[in-house]
Structure formats: structure tokens, C-alpha cells
Automatic annotation (TrEMBL), chain A:
<dbReference type="GO" id="GO:0055085">
    <property type="term" value="P:transmembrane transport"/>
</dbReference>
<feature type="transmembrane region" description="Helical">
    <location>
        <begin position="12"/>
        <end position="39"/>
    </location>
</feature>
<feature type="transmembrane region" description="Helical">
    <location>
        <begin position="241"/>
        <end position="261"/>
    </location>
</feature>
<feature type="transmembrane region" description="Helical">
    <location>
        <begin position="111"/>
        <end position="134"/>
    </location>
</feature>
<keyword id="KW-1133">Transmembrane helix</keyword>
<dbReference type="Pfam" id="PF00528">
    <property type="entry name" value="BPD_transp_1"/>
</dbReference>
<feature type="transmembrane region" description="Helical">
    <location>
        <begin position="189"/>
        <end position="210"/>
    </location>
</feature>
<feature type="transmembrane region" description="Helical">
    <location>
        <begin position="140"/>
        <end position="157"/>
    </location>
</feature>
<dbReference type="InterPro" id="IPR035906">
    <property type="entry name" value="MetI-like_sf"/>
</dbReference>
<keyword id="KW-0813">Transport</keyword>
<keyword id="KW-1003">Cell membrane</keyword>
<protein>
    <submittedName>
        <fullName>ABC transporter permease</fullName>
    </submittedName>
</protein>
<feature type="domain" description="ABC transmembrane type-1">
    <location>
        <begin position="73"/>
        <end position="261"/>
    </location>
</feature>
<feature type="transmembrane region" description="Helical">
    <location>
        <begin position="77"/>
        <end position="99"/>
    </location>
</feature>
<keyword id="KW-0472">Membrane</keyword>
<keyword id="KW-0997">Cell inner membrane</keyword>
<keyword id="KW-0812">Transmembrane</keyword>
Amino acid sequence: MARRRSASELSYGLVIGSLAALALVVLVGPILIVLATSFTDSRSIRFPPQGFSFRWYELLLDEVRSRQIHRAVGNTLHVAVVAAGLATLGGTAAALGISRVAGKAGRLADALFMSPLVLPGLAFGLAALMYFTLLGFRPSLELIIAGHLVVVTPFVLRTVGASLSQLDPALLDASRSLGAGPVHTFRRVTLPLIAPGIAAGAFLAFMASVDNVPVSLFLSSARTDMLPIRMWGMMESTLDVRVAAVSGTLILVAFLLMLVMERLTGLTRRMRG
Amino acid sequence: MSSAAALPAPRARGAAAPALSPWGLAAPLGLAYAAFFAAPLFMLFAVSFYADEQMTRFGLDQWRRFLFDSFHWKVIADTLLLGLKAVAATVLLGFPLALVYRAASPRWQRVLLFVVIMPLLTSVVVRTFAWIVILGREGVVNQLVLGLGLAAEPLRLLQTELGLVISLTQIEMPLLLLPLLSVMSRIDPNLMDASASLGASPWRTLFRVILPLAAPGLAAGCLLVFASATTAFISQSVIGGGRLVYLPSMIWQQAMIAAHWPFAATAAIALLVSVSAVIAVIAYAGRVAGGRVHG
């Protein structure tokens, strides 16, 4: 009995342990490989990289030869800032509203607002293209912002909704019974307590917009080029080594932003929900 | 409590926000969704009922063309199967990682969480690019395989479904892990001890105690992975290549290259409906499995 028990404990530890280790390698390995590759000195993308240089990063910074990439980065940041800003305002207000609607209606509203998260983004991207074109709009960054707004708002709703559900109603009652009006209670009690949730949501919405493919794929044009779409083009044609340098930059920026957000909002805890 | 009567009556119950009705607060976002989400989707349906490419008259021609061609059904099946394979692969690796996470100290839990979220915040295009470097003819895998003498010539991994599923495993795994880790951390460790002290092997505890308790989080994660893998156009087209046809590449091809909007709309609705149907099944399974334990 005892022998059998230890044998199964051993097999459990071995199987689960090695699968989990493989999962970690699969998760992190590719990112480290891309980062290392971006410092290659050769004209081909290989791992391990040959030589060490910043030449692809230098080419990436070149105003003239990387002009298209620079424009795509500018467009992407512009869209992400505006879309995430609007999503944060609208999403926070909606989350505050929904949190006060009990029962079925509240759950239904929540499910509707969250649906872009599971809906095939590509179908929505095509729908947005047809809609805007048939209404007579020409491609513009504003249309991309409208499309992104819908797909990034669920991130705000989720983090703000989670903060609100952890809000102790006794605090609101206390504030009221001490004579504070609703506006005062909101500004001095509710808002400070849910602020980290709002910040985390804004950050995730921003990152989701920067990363968006399905909507940008249909709504971007030569004039309104977006970074992921440009990178796709660079990967499809001749494999341009600058893709590695762009990737390396994005990885480092994501890493730094994540450290900052972890400090400010406890992001990892919040995303675990 | 008697003093409460002397105070001014609260205007709104649980007033988290001032002076505005709940629906008033949700209205701006609701309007934005109506204009930029519901209306476009309605337009997608409408366009699919144009009979011809020039969109001059209505008719069921595109639907007939789509549904009465076995090739399209094969594309739908391949797309859904790709999603299910991605779900299976991410669960096979992700669930053990979640088990390790559950047993880890708070400090290590934070490290693991960081490792899971980091790839999620790294662009999907970057992650797709990484797998080209790894799976290519001169990629990491082939260098290993050739170096160890396991094969005489480079394996063909890019432009195969195997390569695509491997890539999607990494690309989508964070989506599985976030909800899964969240339920795992809420499981009472005493239950595991109780199960062990009653003589259950770790495997039995895994399947009879942990798995049912984790079911809602597992279902939520599977749902996100499935939704994302079936619509992952760039990974599908760059790693899968032109010979593997899935609904997203078909939709893109028809809309942007062939400029045949009614047919593209029909294919997009097929993607929408088929993916939603599978998602509904996964969500239902999660509720049933969770309800048996939590209900």
C-alpha cells in the first residue's frame, strides 16, 4: 500500500513537473530567442545570432530608410492613446452603472459589453470595413479608433468591475451617514479605491489596441498604416531583419511598462482577477 | 441604528457614483457600441444577402454558393478543429503549470504570474515571428534535430498544421492560464490534505478534487483560447502558409483580394456562428461541471 502510494506520487511529480517545465520553456523561450536574434550582425535571421551588433536597431531609427515604420508607429500610438482613453472613460462609467443594476438585466448588459472579447475579431473587422465604407467614409485613423474602442473596452470593464465588487459597501454607508453627499462620496471614497483598477484597465486597453490585428487588418490603408499590419507585410515578403529589431523593441517596452504597472497597480494580481 | 432615521435619506442605494441613474452611466458606452458594434454587425448580415458581387440586388445566391459546396464545409471543420487542437495543446501544458502554481509559495506565484502575462503583452505578431525563427528550415528546432543526428534533412515545420498548432500553443496559452490560475488560487488547500489523508493518490485527488473545482476557470480559459485561435489570421497565414485554408484567410482573400463583399460577409457570418456555437458548448460544459461542485 505504502509502496504503491509513493510510486504514484513519483509518477505524479514527474509527469506534472515536466509538463509544467515544458510549458514555461514554451512560454518564455520564443521571446528570449527573438530578443537575442535582434542583435545579430548578419543579414539573415538565425538563432544563435552571428556576431553582436546594433545595426538593425540603427537602421530602424534611420529617418529616411525606415520612414514607413515610423509612420506606422506614430499611427499606432495615436490610435491606442485615444481608443484606450475613450474606453477608460466610457468603460468606467458603464461599470459603475452596471454594478448598481442587480439581477438579470445587469448580467445581460455585462455580457453584451464583454462580447467583443470572444467574438471572432475578424468578422467584426470586416463588418466595420463594410459599414464605414457603405456610409461613405474614407479610411482614416478616426475609424480605426472607433473599431478599436469596441474591442479594447472589455479590458476596462473587467478590471474596474473587479475593483467595484471588492468595494466594501460599509465604507459608502459610513461616508453617507457622516453627511457626505453622493458626489463627495464618489470623489473621496469610491474613486480612490477603484483608481488602481481603472489604471490597470487603461493599460490593458492601450496594449490591446497596440496589438490589434483583426480590426486594423481591414480598416488600415496605405495612409493609415498600423504597426502590426506593417510587420506582417515585412514578414510575408522578404524576411526583413528589422522585424527582429521592432520585435526586440516591443518586448523591452512591454517588459518595462509591465514593471511600472506592477508597481503602480499590482497589475498581475488584478489580471488574475 | 436609531440615529439613522435622523439622517437625510440616501438618494441612491449603494451610491457608487453621483446623481446619475445606472443606465445613464452606461448610456455613452451603450451608444458607442450601438454605432460601432451592433450596426456594423447588422450591416455584415445585410451585405451577405446581396445576390451579386456588385451588390445591385438581393438574393440568397451567396448563401447557396457557400452552403452547397463541400469545400466550404471542410474549411469550417478545419478552422474549428484547429481551435480545438490549440485548446487541447494549451490545456496539456497549461494545466500542469497551473497545478505547480497552486502549490507554489506566494513569492513564486508572483514570478509565475509575471511569466504568464509577459507573453500576453508581447504583440501577437512578435510571437508569430518568434516561431518562424524557431520552426524555419534553419531554425532552432532543425539545428537541434540535425545536430543530434535525429534526422538526415531539415524537418518541414513551417507551413504545416503541426507547426501552426505548436505556435498557437504558446501564442494562446496565457489566455488559458489567467482564468485558470485565478480559480486555482481560490481552491482550499485543506481539501487536498483531506483527500490525501483519506488515502487518495495524487492522481485521484487531481481528477476527483482539483479538476471539478477548477472547471469554471478551465472552461473560461478554453473559451478564450478557442475564440482567439480560430480568428488568428496572421499566425494562420504566416506559419500555416497558403496551402492551409482556414475561414479567416478565406474571408480576407474574398474581401480584400477578390473584392467580393457579399461572399466575404457570408463566410464571416459562418465564422461567427460556428465559433459562437462551440463557445456556447464550452461555456455550458463549464457551468455543468462547476454547478455540480459549487451549486
